[in-house]
Amino acid sequence: MVSRVIPVESFDLVIFGATGDLARRKILPALFRRFCDGQMPEEARIIGAARTEQTPDAWRSWVADSLSEFVSPALTEAHVDVFLEKLDYIAVDARGEAGWSDLKARMRDDVVQAFYFSVAPALFGDLAERLHRFGIAHGAARIVVEKPFGRDLATARALNATLAAHFEEGQIYRIDHYLGKETVQNLMAVRFGNVLFEPLWNAQYVDHVQITVAEAVGVGGRGSYYDQSGAMRDMVQNHLMQLLCLTAMEPPSRFEPDAVRDEKLKVIRALQPVSAKDIVRGQYEAGDTPSYAEDVEETDSRTESFIAMKLHIANWRWNGTPFYLRTGKRLKARKSEIVVIFKEPPHSIFDEDAGSRPNVLSIRLQPDEGIDLSVTIKEPGPGGMRLIDVPLDMSFADALGPEAADVPDAYERLIMDVTPRQPDPVHAR
Ligand code: NAP
Fold this sequence. Notes:
This protein is an alpha/beta fold and 429 residues long. The chain has helices spanning 21-36, 56-70, 73-84, 100-106, 124-133, 153-164, 182-193, 223-248, 257-270, 292-296, 396-400, 402-405, 410-417, and strands at 11-16, 45-50, 87-91, 112-117, 142-145, 172-174, 206-214, 279-282, 306-311, 323-328, 335-342, 360-366, 370-378, 387-395. NADP nicotinamide-adenine-dinucleotide phosphate binds at residues 16-23, 50-52, 92-95, 118-121, 123, 146-148.
């Protein structure tokens, strides 16, 4: 398989929070990999912005250190010097007045402008207001914001209103890195690009659906953040809800953002309130590793590091089919998957002791992205008709060659989606 890289248009990307953890671990390595792959045009520039007073050279050398930690040494060695030439740095305080006029002077009007808000959400409003007041962002500029997008409905609405005061909805890119994963994008292709599944994708044939995002690690160094959030806010209301919507939604009329969003929204609107008996919350205990309470240094913490729940979608397609969502930290293995368990055949023609099991479709998001469909066959050999399950296993890496395993990280795909592609030379007419 040969992957095609279509360069994006030239851009000025400002990363607010350029000295932070997200910039260091995710954003800058993602940009660097896209640069190495040839997707970034020569004139593209990346401007770091944070309160820390430092020279552009000092930031560049911090970036180089981050890349050597998070990107393969071979790639870093080959390309880092040219990449660093694209970088600039400017000290600005989201809540102060200094630095903003300098930032305006450095922005170009004739390229795509993108502003990545990699700072605490409490600063989003200050940034948006200053970008507007100092005339920095032009009418087509885009802003990118990360979770957590508010703590509850009221704070999410307040945050939306703050951004909407200065930017049109079409300019606001809310990043959910789960949606950038190859298999999540593939879920759409599997469901709507094959005639095989769609007729069976309903309550008549699906017994239940399990959506699992299990992490083997604990809360690590993010204890104080995590304890304010918990699994429900950190994972369920964003990532798992998105997976649920993609699994349960009706086919959109076209593969376009608004059409897909409309169908997802219908799923959310059809969700029935979850009763307390259908939710389980827990914390991991000490074993070879410390307990959750020890990790967050809060002996009385009631924040959940594990949550499981049963949901019902009240519409024609799904009435009566439960969806089980579960996620947690420090579980047995790192595993994210959507498993669709079909109903058993309505009538078995075989003896009872032949056994029978439902078909199961597993869509693996990580690790080893791929799809696995269990089908029932006759156990080979003598001994009469005994039924067994065998997997029709399609690992994307096996099926599509080693390049398929080397798909861009979700952040790479999403950050590049903020900037329009140049006309595709293969498909342009
Ligand atoms: P962080 O490590 O605490 O970094 C915060 C950044 O904001 C720093 O660069 C800091 O730099 C800058 N900053 C703080 N106050 C500022 C101000 N008044 N004006 C301008 N810059 C200011 O946080 P992070 O982990 O990078 O997270 C950033 C955002 O992404 C948060 O909303 C977080 O919840 C979200 N997020 C993070 C992750 C992750 O894996 N880290 C994952 C998903 C979402 P100075 O101190 O130099 O100003």
